[in-house]
Every structure is written in C-alpha cells, then in structure tokens.
C-alpha cells in the first residue's frame, strides 16, 4: 500500500477535502457553539470525524456494490454535490448545517459540520482517481488541521475577521468548482468508453 504513496495525490486529496470541509469558513459557527455550550471537545470531534471519513472510504464502496452502482457513476454524482457546494461557497449561500444539539463534540461538529454528506461523498469520489493511502493521508492531515482550528477558533476569528473569512471561502469555492468539473469529465469519459462501443 505504501508503495503507491504519492505526494502529489496526497496534496490534491488534502486540498479537495479541505475545501469541502471548509473548517475556516465554519469558524463563526464553531465560535457560536462554543458560546452556547461553554466548551468544545476538539480532540473527540476531530477523531470521530476522521474515523467517519476513513470508514466511509472503505465501507462506502461495499455499499455501492451491494446496490449495484459503480465507482465512476458515484464519482459523477459526487462531482455534482461538490459543484453545488462550490457554488454555495462562491455565491455566499449558507450550506444547511444542523446546530440543534445538546452536545458540542460529535454532533453537530464531527457530524455533519466536518464529516457531512458532502465530505463523505467527496471521500468516496476521490477513490475513483486516487489510491487509498493518499486519500487516508489527506484525511489525517485535514483531521489534524480541524483539531488545530477547533482549539484556536476564538483567536482565529479575532485575527482573520469576517472579510478575510469570506475571501477565503470564495477562493476555495473556485478551486472546488474546478475540481468538480475535472472529476466529472474524467469519470464521464471512463463511463462513456465502458458502455458506448463503436
């Protein structure tokens, strides 16, 4: 497995997941939850989110086989999800996040704020193009970054400000939009060559 490690693939997977998770853009939500519940369990939230993403990376494919859907078709569906998330980030539309909870660790921070439907779909979609070890490394790097952000959310909000956060969100939205188009075209070409014979 480690022979398939690629720094380029790891960095790409890390950036894709970073853009989808959008933990920087979620800082105002995290700060609000901290004020509401008093304390955020950064370690617990980060570990659970990481486990959810890694588990779905492997279990998700088995679920697809069970229902008779190939990885390329799912990747195209994932590309549409990423495309919509990117549009929401660029246009400044709030992605629906459930904050009605009595806990500020697993729910709603680990799920659905970090490891939400978009993140899990993206994780499995990446598997159509990248090796598992590179995606896992990307997940681990994002989990570490999420932990650091959760630990220092108040400080980051004071330093960055709303304007900077909005600019970052739009920049990552554009990157995500380009990645979703690439993911769609690559997997559509694969499906086309598989099912259409001349």
TrEMBL record:
Cellular location(s): Cell membrane
Transmembrane segments: 12-33, 45-67, 73-93, 105-127, 133-150, 171-192
Keywords attached to this entry: Cell membrane, Membrane, Transmembrane, Transmembrane helix
Keyword set includes Transmembrane: yes
InterPro entries the UniProt entry points to: Multi_antbiot-R_MarC
Topological type in the membrane: Multi-pass membrane protein
Pfam families xrefs: MarC
Entry annotated with the keyword Transmembrane helix: yes
PANTHER family assigned to the protein according to its UniProt record, in alphabetical order: UPF0056 MEMBRANE PROTEIN YHCE (PTHR33508:SF1)
Family: Belongs to the UPF0056 (MarC) family.
Protein name per the record: UPF0056 membrane protein
